[in-house]
Amino acid sequence: MRECKLLSRNLLLLVSEVIFLSRKLGNIFVVNLAIADLVVAIYPYPLVLTSVFRNGWNLGYFHCQISGFFMGLSVIGSIFNITGIAINRYCYICHSLKYDKLYSDKNSLCYVILIWILTFVAILPNLFVGSLQYDPRIYSCTFAQSVSSTYTIAVVFFHFMLPISIVTFCYLRIWILVIQVRRRVKPDNKPKLKPHDFRNFVTMFVVFVLFAVCWAPLNFIGLAVAVNPDTIIPRIPEWLFVSSYYMAYFNSCLNAIIYGLLNQNFRREYKRIIVTICTAKVFVQESSNDAADKMKSKPSPLVTNNNQVKVDSV
């Protein structure tokens, strides 16, 4: 019972640390991106491991559809959140006077809800087209590129090319402003970009670049398959498709590493979370040891009764 209370207390501390981190950075979209990356770990990945161990999918049609749905939810949610972060950084750096009005607490919450609504709307057509199927090459239920050429082209355009274009525009505008600020030599021209703002921008820019690099091969393969499936599908080596697929989903593991390497605030908060977890773990161990010592030091009822009998007999 005590360990359950300590576990719940530790969980609350961890959640409070995450909330504190999101408020401190002033950007709820970063936490939202982390949630999108974690979606695949909740349901799809355990099923993929099961299919790998069993060398096939034995969980039925329903679980296949749900697993593919959550995978798509994570992927589309990630790219939409990266787009939202890029727009947020663009407004913060290039239109700083309007930023507080555009990204108030209420508006930011509405933007987050809008991102997830668009994500659900974007993934729902897969259930009607029948494009979520089990692929034995990757041991998972995922989007089948050869089901509908028109739908595959629409997916590549709206879920990858259009968001990448928006993000590229936002970051190009930010880089232009950065170059202009650094070229100013007059003392009366104060730079509009603070050092910590620049570091945060670099962090999210690296996140975007790695996302584009990791997901580009799989999307280009899908686009080629959609244009001419009968000719392209036989020519794509299995190792190329499998490599591009796992490289794309490996991207979900990279964001936390990037935050830790490039952002001092994240490194500091990571340390605080680790210290909190370790402290709670040590406290649980000490409490367990104290309870065991008390049980050992407590005299048994038999010994107590024997001693009492001896005293009475004397």
Itemize the secondary structure elements and their pairings.
Elements (H helix, E strand, L loop, with lengths): L1 H24 L2 H15 L1 H11 L5 H35 L1 H7 L2 H19 L1 H5 L2 E4 L4 E4 L5 H35 L11 H33 L1 H7 L2 H25 L1 H34 L3 H13 L1
Antiparallel strand pairs: 1-2
Helix pairs in contact: 1-2, 1-12, 2-4, 4-5, 4-6, 4-8, 4-9, 8-9, 9-10, 9-11, 11-12
Notes on the protein architecture:
- The chain is mainly alpha-helical and 314 residues long.
- The chain has a single domain, classed as Rhodopsin 7-helix transmembrane proteins (Rhopdopsin 7-helix transmembrane proteins, Up-down Bundle).
- 84% of the residues lie in helices and 3% in strands.
- The chain has helices spanning 2-25, 28-42, 44-54, 60-94, 96-102, 105-123, 125-129, 149-183, 195-227, 229-235, 238-262, 264-297, 301-313, and strands at residues 132-135, 140-143.
- The protein has a two-stranded antiparallel sheet with strand order 1-2.
- Strand 1 (132-135) and strand 2 form a beta hairpin.
- Helix 1 crosses helix 2 (28-42), helix 9 packs across helix 10 (229-235) and helix 11 crosses helix 12 (264-297).
- The chain is globular, with a radius of gyration of 27 Å.
List the defining traits of the structure above.
314 residues; 13 helices; 2 strands
Using DSSP, what is the number of strands?
Answer: 2
Structure class:
mainly alpha
- Low-confidence parts, pLDDT < 50 over ≥5 residues? 1-26, 185-191, 300-314
Biggest sheet descriptor: 2 strands, antiparallel
Indicate how many domains the architecture comprises.
1
What would the average pLDDT be, to the nearest integer?
Answer: 77
CATH H level: which superfamily? Answer: Rhodopsin 7-helix transmembrane proteins
- For the terminal residues, how far apart are their CA atoms? 45 Å
| CATH architecture verdict | Up-down Bundle
CATH class: Mainly Alpha
Instruction: Return the string of H and E elements.
Output: HHHHHHHEEHHHHHH
Membrane topology: Multi-pass membrane protein
Subcellular location: Cell membrane
Family: Belongs to the G-protein coupled receptor 1 family.
Keywords: Cell membrane, Disulfide bond, G-protein coupled receptor, Membrane, Receptor, Transducer, Transmembrane, Transmembrane helix
